[in-house]
Design a protein that fits this description.
Helix content of chain A: 25-40%
Order of helices and strands of chain B: EEHHHEHHHEHEHEEHHEE
Radius of gyration of chain A: 20 Å
Oligomer: heterodimer
Order of helices and strands of chain A: EEHEEHHEHHHEHEHEEEHEHEHHEEEEE
CATH superfamily of chain A: Thiolase/Chalcone synthase
Strand content of chain B: 15-25%
CATH topology of chain A: Peroxisomal Thiolase, Chain A, domain 1
Helix content of chain B: 25-40%
Low-confidence stretches of chain A: none
Low-confidence stretches of chain B: none
Strand content of chain A: 15-25%
Distance between the termini of chain B: 20 Å
Shape of chain B: globular
CATH superfamily of chain B: Thiolase/Chalcone synthase
Number of strands of chain A: 17
Structural class of chain B: alpha+beta
Distance between the termini of chain A: 18 Å
Chain lengths: 397, 265
Amino acid sequence: MQPLAISRYSIVNCLGAGSRAIADAMRDKRSGLAPCDFETVALDTFIGRVPGLEEARVRPDLGAYDCRNNRLAQIGIELDGFAGAVAQARDRYGAARIGVFLGTSTSGILETELAYRRRDPKTGALPPDYRYTQTHNTFSLADFVRRYLGLQGPAFVVSSACSSTAKVFGNAARMIAAGVCDAAVVGGVDTLCLTTLYGFYSLELTSRGPCRPFDAERDGLSIGEGAGFALLERVEARPEAGAMLLLGIGESCDAYHMSTPHPEGLGALSAMRRALETANLAPADIDYVNLHGTATRTNDAAEDRSVWEMFGSGTPCSSTKGATGHLLGAAGITEIIISILAIEHGLMPGSAHTRRIDPAMKCNYQIEPRNARVKRVLSNSFGFGGSNCSIVLGAAG
Amino acid sequence: MLAFVEGVGLAGPGLRGWQASRAIFAGKQAYSRAPTAVAASELLPAAERRRAGVPVKLALAAGQEALATAGGDAATTATVFASSSGDCDNLHYILEALDTAERQISPTRFHNSVHNAAAGYWSIATQCRAPSTSLCCHDASFAAGLLEAVSQVAVAGTPVALIAYDHPYPEPLNTVRPIHGDFGMALALAPQATERAVAALDVSFMPREMEASRTADPGLERLRTGVPAARCLPLLAALARGSRETVILEYVAGTHLRVAVTPCS
């Protein structure tokens, strides 16, 4: 594929707001996970919560869209100079030439969960102030962001569970290659809600403590929330040295089970292979692999197998979910931006909360952060329904 | 962007498959509404067949019909799934459970709640590991799916199956988001004109107000406006008539898609 320039990005999650805060947390191997204190949830688990969302509100002219998910979207857009960069791109290309392709898994479903508690005791009707289209519907996020940024190009939401915000890079790359738009806002948001907390608990996939990816005693994931956005544009004829590029993308399905990964990681392997092929790179060209690494028994075992098969036991790799938690639909963009920060700061992230690597693992798993030259990274995101996506990123020059 | 239609699949109220419905769209047979008849795919393993909700059945039935007509290989064809809301019965069950003291959700209900559940079941049924995406664009979900599918065909140069489906919410959500019927459709799209090609679709994004195409039959028009996935009906009607036509589909906030349909003889 033709590489695309990632000309601006922004990020927010339980580690902090803005790329500086996230980069510092990676260097210090800090974790933002804490015992679950969300809403009325009574589960013995840890979460990665963004403080202050209960008090936040979206811009008044878009007040109908106010919900936890869109509040976090707005916070993300306003960080790292992202909104300003999009405004400049809008002046350059025209509002109708910039697409908005975002991912989320649960959108503003929390609003509906709360509205169900307020159903009319006689009729069962939802309260009159409940707004389905602007909050719950999966498209709400892209609708909100498109209006917030004043864009008029093509838009939709990809919702393929935990691969959503990685896959949107593929949608944007195709739309730009096909000439439908000149630039695209990609990324997305997922926020805490009862459906995912109680849902993962029902599957016995939530950890009782902070999650410990690739640890011998790992016992499940910690759910978090976060937002991340990236502005994608065509690469200039001679990009500046160090300019950040999307080099490749691979998408695949497991065709195995709705909530359990293929035990041999066949779908994951196929996504990584396609990502390297589209980037025209060999496994040896990758300096660091940011794993999906959810800290469930099955994900980490299957991913280790597929990454070892692809890269052998030399390429350093780690999961950053011990720091952020599993941001579900927002995991892809979050870890893509963490990978960009790894390249920009020359720092391979470690693995917060991982104590002893499972001796069955064969990959070169990094517990401690390490200063090193990182030129190219592969980032994995896998989701329910067997949806896999791998992204290759690199610096120009 | 150009793509060639090689097969169509359909399951809707009074529309029992594409082959059986072509005469209705061509205006040669009256449309009469009847509940959508759809069974779980025989291709699913027994456990998955039991767990599959109505939206999965709609998606798989339409997808299988389109690929069977096209003679396409489901195991290697990339897919684009488009739906306004996924499995609405399943979601209602979860929301009700979360409003009880116990808050016990069935694990199967939870994994069926993801928007890409139909894509997951499809890949298990067809043993397909090719790329697949699952989109939502509220009322314009079909248009978004068509734009994405055709861009994949044009850029990757590979066949793509577009599968769009929608299914009503139970109350109380039905009142705030009414969807009037179960509807699933699929298009098997190819990058080149082969002997199987029915028509060429030239799809353009139009960032301006236009008048969206309608269907002539009042019953079909009610279906078109009543179910997001059924916004495809003017395109299906053009394909059934086998004539050269331009179909305008409403897309997001005042934008449209122009679809120039050229029959392949």
